[in-house]
Amino acid sequence: MPRLALYSLAVCLLATAAAVVSFVRGPWWLGVVWVLLAGVSSNMSLYYRRRSRQVSE
Question: How far apart are CA 20 and CA 12, in angstroms?
């Protein structure tokens, strides 16, 4: 797995954890922001993984 895919996957996991904490303890709108960030980083991770597979073929 390429390095950028791993970094974006780590950001996705951390953003998901931050969203859960924000929904439980903080304002709900901040949780929505974290969920959106998790979605973007998840898409980036999939993109970099697919791109590395296409380059290696």
Answer: 12
pLDDT digits (tens, 9 = 90+) for 6-55: 999 999 999 999 999 999 998 999 999 999 999 999 999 999 999 998 88
Give the ranges where the chain is alpha helix by DSSP (H).
Answer: 3-25, 28-56
Q: List C-alpha distances in Å: 26 to 15, 17, 34, 52.
A: 14, 13, 12, 38
- CB contact at 8 A, 8 and 41: yes
Residues 6+ apart with CB under 8 A from 20: 31
